[in-house]
């Protein structure tokens, strides 16, 4: 989700080496740089987070006023770090797994990463252990996909998350992901609109 003006600002901040020959952002090169340097990551976040926040706010407004979704799930991996969207949500859900499982999943999802790069990415965020301590709900993601589905079903059957009626007060759920599996929650949230 990099628009032209942000791509221009990224080029100014990080140089031409983060831009591919076709003019698109080279996420791999940029990622290697920002996940090794906290100051560079801060500069990138200052460019990208306003656009990302506006996009999420637009999606929430659409869901509330146009599609009238009774439950809205947001995927905000840096929620605790940025704090900019916390006001939108009533509950925070952390999808949690053991660190080694998280590392293995990250390496499977991004085969271009080596273990050091993957750990740098993980360490650039608040640890899952810390996130779990301040979450409203925790979904265990240490097992199989079937077990995860079961845990998500339990979450959406929790009394606090059940909408009283379709036109009633919206419940905003903030999701901090532990790779990969956000889609399941989105599918479950659509269940309430039927």
Automatic annotation (TrEMBL):
NCBIfam families: dephospho-CoA kinase (TIGR00152). It holds the Pfam family CoaE. InterPro entries: Depp_CoAkinase, P-loop_NTPase. CDD domains: DPCK (cd02022). The lineage of its organism: Eukaryota, Rhodophyta, Bangiophyceae, Porphyridiales, Porphyridiaceae. The keyword 4Fe-4S does not apply. Keywords: ATP-binding, Nucleotide-binding. This is Dephospho-CoA kinase. GO terms for biological process: coenzyme A biosynthetic process. The keyword Nucleotide-binding applies. GO terms for molecular function: ATP binding; dephospho-CoA kinase activity.
